[in-house]
Task: inverse folding
């Protein structure tokens, strides 16, 4: 048995400083290089015990903590709500968490979501109360300790900081958590520690690392014990081409051990596959697997928990976001393949309903995007991983024939194969792309709104709108030439120049004018009471008080409403088309 390094998951709302906190620890600038400043995939960074000791030496002595863990493995999770599933995976494998909260913004939607995930998985956590440097009057102290930094502030600034701290504590209490500033905590098993800090200036980093190491070691010792010889198991973060090697996979190993020459099973879109490990490459300490500044260390063996790059033949089709499993023998291999096939099928299932075609770079992105789209009422017909291809465009074009508003390809962080965008343009299939997930959804919604506006405008210009109206009692202003009566529009939209059907289905005239309080209107919608002038009708002969009149919608217009513009009219208006047909037959 051995003690592995704790897995620390970093969570919080978008832009609250999750990656910046790690950047301060790593002394890197990963967040500045990422699209939109937001982490798009789970990343991993190792902070070895000697680094923790060098930063927190005096504080660890005061806590009477002797480091036994080999270090800390940080998983930096996305902050946007769309990444619920990715964060749930992070939460489920995490030993302890850091919840980053912007002191100026307080609790936001993803802060609350993170708390619910941590509660669901019973994951202990520390609150990093970030951006204390933005507190009015704060002066950079040059200290790594938040307590030393606070002592150097003016009394009014200290009071202001305490007020903000207790506002946060009160909100946590409302959500069922007892919390206190870390140095005022009396029972770490019952109270959440809050560390005031600034990722920008580095104040509070020392206490954050000290608490993560000390609390993990003190309360999670049994959890951190592993059977070194156990089968390795982990999650694929990314599939990458490495110069001089070929295709590799970046993996978070969360269980057991992997050795060079071990057989691993991994998922592809065409079913689970297996291969033999040729090389294990570990990133340098304090570096980032997704963007290392230096070369990797070539090792013979890795043990959980760690981030590792795996090189092996046949990894080209491996699915980022899925699991890898080390196997020994044919029976274990068969079981592992069955498990992975089930995992992938659940996410990449093809649906029969009309919906968008979704392409993304990882299984986790597909999973998160599908959930977010369907939460917005946008169905996904098929989801896949990798670049946009001819099949994607063809399927979107077929969907477009059924429903133009979902006959699109949504592409998250992937490119198109050569010539595909030209093919899509010739077929009228939009390809909407983004490398920021919420922007992709927003761009689609903007496109759809514009298409609906354009289509509605087009339909209104050339087609007669269905409308049902009732002649108001006592509201006859002119008997004929033209007949002027007061009406209430019950359903639909009444426009000038629309023909009208009487109660027996006969044509009784045409709307020449619509007026409300003496002003002419181009149209009147459901619920409005207006005066209308009907050319060709005579009161009592063609209509009377309380008569219900319908607009005369030509047969060809009814067919076009149903076939080409079914989404523009409401359910009531679509039903009214049938009523108009029925009345015309009766006349």
Result:
């Amino acid at each position: 048995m051995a003690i592995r390094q704790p897995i620390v998951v970093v969570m919080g709302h978008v832009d609250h400083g999750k990656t910046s906190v790690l950047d301060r620890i790593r002394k890197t600038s990963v967040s500045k290089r990422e699209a939109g400043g937001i982490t798009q995939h789970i990343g991993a960074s190792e902070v070895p015990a000697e680094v923790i000791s060098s930063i927190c030496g005096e504080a660890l002595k005061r806590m009477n903590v002797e480091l036994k863990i080999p270090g800390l493995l940080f998983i930096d999770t996305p902050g946007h709500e769309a990444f619920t599933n990715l964060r749930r995976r992070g939460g489920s494998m995490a030993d302890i968490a850091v919840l980053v909260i912007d002191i100026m913004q307080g609790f936001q939607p993803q802060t609350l979501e993170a708390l619910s995930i941590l509660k669901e998985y019973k994951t202990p956590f520390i609150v990093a109360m970030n951006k204390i440097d933005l507190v009015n009057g704060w002066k950079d102290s040059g200290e790594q300790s938040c307590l030393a930094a606070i002592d150097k502030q003016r009394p009014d600034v200290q009071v202001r900081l305490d007020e903000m701290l207790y506002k946060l504590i009160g909100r946590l209490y409302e959500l069922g958590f007892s919390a206190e500033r870390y140095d005022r905590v009396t029972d770490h098993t019952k109270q959440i520690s809050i560390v005031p800090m600034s990722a920008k200036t580095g104040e509070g980093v020392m206490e954050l690392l000290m608490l993560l190491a000390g609390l993990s070691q003190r309360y999670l010792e049994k959890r951190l014990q592993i059977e070194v010889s156990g089968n390795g198991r982990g999650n694929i973060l990314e599939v990458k081409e490495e110069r001089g090697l070929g295709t590799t996979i970046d993996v978070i190993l969360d269980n057991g051990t992997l050795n060079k020459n071990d057989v691993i099973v991994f998922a592809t879109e065409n079913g689970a596959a297996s291969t033999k490990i040729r090389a294990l490459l570990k990133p340098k300490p304090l570096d980032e697997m997704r963007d290392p500044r230096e070369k990797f260390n070539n090792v013979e063996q890795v043990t959980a928990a760690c981030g590792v790059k795996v090189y092996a033949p046949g990894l080209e089709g491996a699915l980022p976001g899925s699991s890898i499993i080390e196997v020994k023998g044919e029976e274990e291999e068969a079981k592992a393949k069955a498990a992975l096939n089930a995992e992938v099928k659940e996410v990449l299932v093809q649906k029969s309903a009309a919906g968008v075609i979704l392409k993304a770079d990882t299984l986790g992105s597909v999973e998160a995007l599908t959930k977010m789209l369907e939460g917005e009422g946008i169905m996904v017909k098929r989801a896949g991983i990798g670049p946009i291809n001819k099949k994607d465009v063809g399927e979107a074009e077929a969907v477009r024939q059924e429903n133009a508003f979902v006959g699109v390809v949504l592409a998250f962080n992937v490119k198109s194969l050569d010539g595909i965008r030209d093919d899509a343009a010739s077929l009228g299939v939009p390809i909407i792309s983004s490398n920021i997930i919420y922007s992709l959804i927003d761009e689609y919604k903007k496109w759809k709104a514009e298409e609906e506006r354009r289509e509605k405008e087009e339909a209104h210009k050339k087609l007669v709108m269905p409308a049902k109206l009732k002649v108001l009692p006592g509201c006859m202003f002119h008997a004929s030439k033209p007949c002027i009566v007061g009406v209430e529009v019950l359903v639909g939209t009444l426009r000038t120049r629309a023909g009208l059907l009487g109660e027996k289905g006969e044509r009784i005239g045409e709307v020449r004018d619509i007026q409300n309080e003496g002003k002419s209107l181009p149209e009147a919608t459901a619920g409005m009471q207006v005066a209308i002038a009907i050319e060709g009708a005579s009161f009592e002969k063609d209509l009377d008080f309380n008569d219900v009149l319908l607009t005369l919608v030509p047969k060809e217009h009814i067919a076009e409403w149903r076939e080409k513009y079914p989404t523009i009219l409401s359910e009531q208006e679509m039903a009214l088309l049938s009523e108009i047909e029925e009345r015309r037959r009766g006349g």
The chain is about 35% helix and 30% strand. The chain has four domains: 2-224, 233-346, 349-460, 467-586. The radius of gyration is 32 Å.
